[in-house]
Design brief:
33% helix, Ribose5P_isomerase_type_A, 25% strand, EC 5.3.1.6, Alpha-Beta Plaits, 15 strands, binds ribulose-5-phosphate
Amino acid sequence: MCCVIRRCFVGTVLRSARATQLVTFCSIHNVGSTNLRQMDGIEAGKKAAAITAVNNHVKTNQVVGIGSGTTIISAVQRLAERVKEEGLKVICIPTSYQARQLILENKLTLGELEINPELDVAIDGADEIDADLTCIKGGGGCQTQEKIVAANAKEFIVIADSRKDVQVLGTNWKNGIPIEVIPMAWRPVQVQIEKRFGGKACLRMAQRKMGPLVTDNGNFILDWKFDKTDDWWKINTELKLIPGIVETGLFVKMARVAYFGTPEGTVDIRKASWL
Ligand SMILES: O=C(CO)[C@H](O)[C@H](O)COP(=O)(O)O
């Protein structure tokens, strides 16, 4: 179990005019279809969570892990603003090609694990987060590098919109747990997972390219659609022992704090109970 330690209104933590404008836009925007309003709300939630996390956790002279996905974009933008406004000095370690490009586009200092093997903080999105702050990650296919970076940070902070805040994994996220596999092993690994744990492990196919999706590490991904929830620590450990599995998208006892942004512009901040 984890507890809500704080709920804040994002207006109080936003300092840039641009960010304030965006949140204001979302709060007064009430025309158009329900879907459009929902999308605005989701975007506002992601942004609020990202900005609050960067404000609360990043200090000058730190080495910061930069996650992948869409929510992290707002975090990187906020870092860039703080560099300009406050002279913040940070070295950013990417978790994917996307993160690397984001760092470079926002003119932040790019680091690498070979030079900076120890990080102060890593910030990243997630596909779903349960009551213990166990996360499913890898919807964007980057979980291996994300886990390496997060595991070497003193603090791993998750940012998400409030749809991803669930009691039990698999409540809203129906795409399964992404598992990165060595290409020649994908079939035996698929058979093993289905036999031992049940459910279906589906080879993720590429979009706008024929054949399987190839990760930044040159591997494939099996999306394991599990049919019952269980002891995630045990399942993750057992999965990691199957030859051919490189990494799973199960992040167990890694996230220390999660920031959930709501469409109303508030952010729920939860600390892991195991801390
Ligand atoms: O794990 C990830 C990529 O591998 C992402 O962090 C996760 O998919 C969440 O993405 P988004 O912020 O776009 O919802």
